[in-house]
Amino acid sequence: MSEANDYFVDTHAHLDLFGSNEDIRHIISTAGKAGVKRIVAIGDDLDSSRKVAGLTEQFARVYGAAGIHPHHADGVDKNTIDQIWAVSNQPKIVAIGETGLDFYRMNSTKDSQISSFKAQGELSKHLGLALIIHCRDAYPELIDILKEMDLGNKRFVIHCFSGTKENAKELLTMGAYISFAGNVTFTNAKELRDVVDEVPLERILIETDSPYLAPHPNRGDKNEPSLLPKIAETIASKKDIDLDLLMTATTDNAKELFNFN
Ligand SMILES: [Zn+2]
Ligand SMILES: [Zn+2]
Question: Model-level pTM?
Answer without folding.
Answer: 0.97
